[in-house]
Amino acid sequence: MSASTTSKAPVADPKNGNGEAVPEKKPAASLEEDDEFEDFPIEDWSEEETQIPGGNTHLWEESWDDDDTNEDFAVQLREELKKLGQK
Amino acid sequence: MQAALQPFHDAHASGQAWRVAYTLSPVPPHDDPGRLYDFYRASNEHQVEGDIRYALKYSQTSKLPPKESGAWTDIFVIYWRAVGEILRAEEASNQGRMNDGQWINVYDAWKEVANAIIKYISNGALPPWTVMCMYSVGNHLRLFAMKADTQLAQVEPSVTFSTGLQDDVVTGVAKNNKLEEAARVFNKMFALCLGDRNPDINESRKWGVYCMANLLFKTYFKLKAISLSKNVVKSIEAQVDLPMFDLYPQSHKITYRYYVGILAFLQEDYANAEQHLTEAWDHCFPESTKNQELILTYLIPCRLITKHNIPSPALLAAFPHLQNIFGPLVTCIKSGDLSGFDNALLASEPEFVKRRIYLTLERGRDIALRNLLRRVFLAAGFEELKEGQAAKDRMRKTRLPIEHFATALRMGTRGEGSGQVLDDDEVECLLANMIYKGLMKGYISRDHGMVVLNKKGAFPGTGV
């Protein structure tokens, strides 16, 4: 049971509105704090509309890296450690 | 006036709250930029009340109950006066004479609109769905309050006696007087929604709870009154008879989750913060890229702590600003470059501090350090194969001289920026810390000057 079933829906029904933009523009953009969340252009949207192309995979990765055998630092480190071993 | 109020009748008949709210907007629509002017010109101070009353009562398209008609009449009369102030302010702005406090007048006039709508909702003259109109009016009040405060700061002398809005007797600079005042209006609106006792949930003002909470969050964050935001969350959590959170419109939910996520983040409750921010991220409207960026600004440091994860290059590439501030940092974390990490943190320090993420990101240094030590472990290679042992079963060397770690640390912290010279005790201290934090498993054998690592999972969660 959602509010949009009432005669005067307190929410804009996305189906009736066809995702039509709620014409509410903020006139004072320059005054806003940087981390202030902006008003969305529409009030409600479906799950399908939130799907990001390519999905939500591959957004995060491990913080460590194994594929560094040729990297400068790894090579240098090996050199340094080798020197220690020879002492 | 009949024609000027026709959009209201149409909107009211359509049953869409946002359309009704829109007819009370202080901003004209794109397709009708002259709407405010036409509306204001349709009457004058002496006749406005009669004109609006007549237009609302005798419409051919919409039949309002008398009580509701009376309420809208009053609201539109007050709105008409506020529109007059807005037009005067815009005219002054166009003529370049914005020094007479026009935005303060606009704010004061608009506050009357807000108070009128509160009055008629609380006495039942307006139906519950009009809370969305109340929200819209409130949101504009917030914007006018900020404009008025900016103007107050300009027109008032730098030292002024406060007029009772603040505890300080003398304020050095003009503060957010109007916004603080507006916050009290929003609190009334919030209470009006939260405390509705109508048992029929379809006819409840409770549907306005989260959008009003969001309005309060925006206001309190601007006022830097974070603790007041927590009170909003507490009172919502204490209200047991709210409709299911899932049933609210996405825009209400996502905005609410963003702010609750930040509040948890600031209390270092990273698990909770991650949950809220991830939900917000997953369901954010894809075209609202600024909002996506804001969510990630907190989600990235959050995941660094909770999951030791970093954003992928593809994710950062989609947000150039985030790439700028987080890119160098995550590269250094990944490679275990401690000096680079310190420099990257320093380079974006003002922004990190402003966003209140500096201290959290600083903890990412542990991850960089873990990765550096991990490299020493990898560089040490494998034990020689025992007889009959398959190559895939060979064991990494787990007994490593402390000196090796010290060498790596000295390499990792040299160069510009870190200014650190590590002595051997400090190296041992850092190693002990890593073990204590569970980022490295093993023990230090001081007698032999060796670190003895676990044979299985020396660096938990990293595959070795």
Structure description:
The complex is a heterodimer of chains A (about 90) and B (about 475). In chain A, about 20% of the residues lie in helices and about 5% in strands. Chain A has about 90 residues and is mainly α. The longest helix of chain A has 15 residues. Chain B folds into three domains: about 240 residues; about 120 residues, no CATH class; about 70 residues, Winged helix-like DNA-binding domain superfamily/Winged helix DNA-binding domain (Arc Repressor Mutant, subunit A). Chain B contains 21 helices and six strands. In chain B, strands 4-6-5 form a three-stranded antiparallel sheet. In chain B, β1 and β2 form a beta hairpin. In chain B, α2 packs parallel to α7, α9 packs antiparallel against α10 and α15 packs across α19. The longest helix of chain B is centred in the N-terminal third of the chain and has 29 residues. Chains A and B meet through β1 and α2 of A and α2, α7, α9, α11 and α13 of B.
Tag the structure with descriptive keywords:
heterodimer; A: 87 residues; mainly alpha; 2 helices; 22% helix; elongated; B: 464 residues; Arc Repressor Mutant, subunit A; 3 domains; three-stranded antiparallel β-sheet; two-stranded antiparallel ribbon
